[in-house]
């Protein structure tokens, strides 16, 4: 199979092309973010720089199955693949609106906190704000951007006020933005 370093490199590469820059390898995503698996493999191998083994369907399946954040999903017949959420390219993931739990969490860096508390939590370059019921996951995400702070989102109140929530295939909650009145600093 592949080494852990190769697994990580291929997974990061797949995230990059399936979420942000498919054009760097000439990959086409459909309107729902799906890419042809065979095309992904062919074009990834033609552009490989971070790993020394050719990517195969077995490697792609291994990455999809073992990714701890379940970032990728296959369609029903396994011929297409997409990122579950986190896109900066415009795609319609076709998620249905869901009733969120009472409370969700979002991790960010303290350097962004003042702007959020003055206005709102926004999606920035992504298509949605990402939230979770899992505090530790959100703190890990926040650490990538600086000193972490955890925001508590009063999701049920937002939903009652008419805001839409979506649940991705990997159990990340998504919404367009969170007005400051629906959040508090949890820690």
From TrEMBL:
One GO biological process term: tRNA splicing, via endonucleolytic cleavage and ligation
**What family does the entry list?**
Belongs to the KptA/TPT1 family.
Keywords attached to this Swiss-Prot or TrEMBL record, sorted alphabetically, are: NAD, Transferase
Question: Per its UniProt record, what PANTHER family does this chain match?
Answer: PUTATIVE PHOSPHOTRANSFERASE (PTHR12684), TRNA 2'-PHOSPHOTRANSFERASE 1 (PTHR12684:SF2)
Q: What is its EC number?
A: 2.7.1.-
Question: What is the gene name?
Answer: kptA
Pfam families per the record? PTS_2-RNA
Q: Which domain of life is it from?
A: Bacteria
Q: Quote the InterPro entries the UniProt record gives.
A: Ptrans_KptA/Tpt1 (IPR002745), RNA_2'-PTrans_C (IPR042081), RNA_2'-PTrans_KptA (IPR022928), RNA_2'-PTrans_N (IPR042080)
Free-text function comment from the UniProt entry: Removes the 2'-phosphate from RNA via an intermediate in which the phosphate is ADP-ribosylated by NAD followed by a presumed transesterification to release the RNA and generate ADP-ribose 1''-2''-cyclic phosphate (APPR>P). May function as an ADP-ribosylase.
Its recorded name reads Probable RNA 2'-phosphotransferase
